[in-house]
Structure formats: C-alpha cells, structure tokens
Specification:
The chain has 72 residues and is of the alpha+beta class. The protein starts with a strand and ends with a helix.
Length: 72
C-alpha cells in the first residue's frame, strides 16, 4: 500500500483539521493495514513541496516563481 495523503493548509489558524487528516487519518489507515496483515506500507511525504508566500498564504505549483528575489 502506498500512502501519500496530507493536508498542507499552513494558513489555517486552527490546526485541528490538519491533525485530523495528517495524524488521525494515518493512524486509522495503519490500524486497517495491521488488521489486514498487509505485507508492505509505503508512506510518502515531503514538506519540501509546500511553501508559504510572503504574506503567509500557501503557494503551490501554479504560483509564479519570483526570480528577481532569488537572483540576489
């Protein structure tokens, strides 16, 4: 089983939805995997795919890259 579900909404003031998805959701899936005697569980995750913009907003692959700020 491959597990790569994550809630990345860093802009949320209340972390409860993130905890529900990222911690409790994973725990539930792992419990089911154990009950099913799953042979292999692959967890995929990287915070490197997530960024926060200059005003605290979440950015994604559709956000324009600011080359001028990175050029130094």
């Amino acid at each position: 089983m491959y597990y790569c579900i994550v809630d990345t909404r860093a802009e949320l003031k209340d972390p409860a939805p993130l905890f529900a998805t990222n911690v409790e959701g994973l725990r539930t899936v792992l419990d089911v995997a154990v009950e099913a005697k799953l042979q292999r569980f692959v967890f995929l995750s990287t915070i490197g795919t997530i960024a926060v913009g200059p005003n605290g907003e979440s950015v994604d692959e559709d956000t324009p890259f600011n080359w001028a700020d990175r050029a130094g």
